[in-house]
Amino acid sequence: MNSPFEYLIAELKPMLPAAPKILDVGAGGFCGEKTTIPLLNILPDSEIVAIEKNGVRCILLRGKVSPPVRVIQDDYFLHDFGREQFDLVVLDLDFQCLPDVFASLSGKTESLVNPGGFVIYLNICNLELANHFYPGTKDGRIEEFMKRVYWKTILEPADVRAVFAQSATWEFITAKNKGETQNCTHWIALRKKGGV
Ligand SMILES: C[S@@+](CC[C@H](N)C(=O)[O-])C[C@H]1O[C@@H](n2cnc3c(N)ncnc32)[C@H](O)[C@@H]1O
Prior knowledge:
Layout: H1 4-12, E1 21-25, H2 36-42, E2 47-52, H3 55-65, E3 70-73, E4 86-91, H4 98-103, H5 108-112, E5 113-124, H6 127-133, H7 141-149, H8 157-164, E6 170-177, E7 185-192
Parallel strand pairs: 1-2, 1-4, 2-3, 4-5
Antiparallel strand pairs: 5-7, 6-7
This protein binds S-adenosylmethionine (SAM).
S-adenosylmethionine binds next to strand 2.
């Protein structure tokens, strides 16, 4: 085990059901290497649904993890999951999606997580570095998002905790530095309130 995501999943494992139902969103970007395969390795009894909007990435991902992973080709924000709910939703989308990912915590994503279940999403914690390493963030949308939500563009875990302190829905669990590209991203883990 060696990535911050793997450490995070290992930390959440004792709080998850023995056979958790998991939704992995944007799963195909690195052919499942960053999230889907670590989830399978650390939670081998889990039931995993992976959704990815890019068709070629879906084919590659299916070749690698399906079965047991159910791979759906669609846009997460448009897909109808019916009444399905999950114990864990992992949102590892491109950074341009970050404002929508955050907004979905009081809409789509909230409705997909069981009470007591978890969501993990990837947040930018240093805008200047993110603009350097992820040129797709330069359109101003992420800067507007960070200033509106956090009032700053360099974040410590305490800043994220403070934003969720008033939330009726989500309890802040942890923010772990993703650690790969010069400390500009955090994995954020939240727990949905209302579980037993
Ligand atoms: C950073 S990569 C994810 C890497 C992935 N977790 C892995 O382990 O390989 C982001 C992926 O999200 C996908 N994506 C972006 N927006 C999406 C959306 N609205 N619905 C589904 N997938 C989306 C992109 O096509 C891209 O493959």
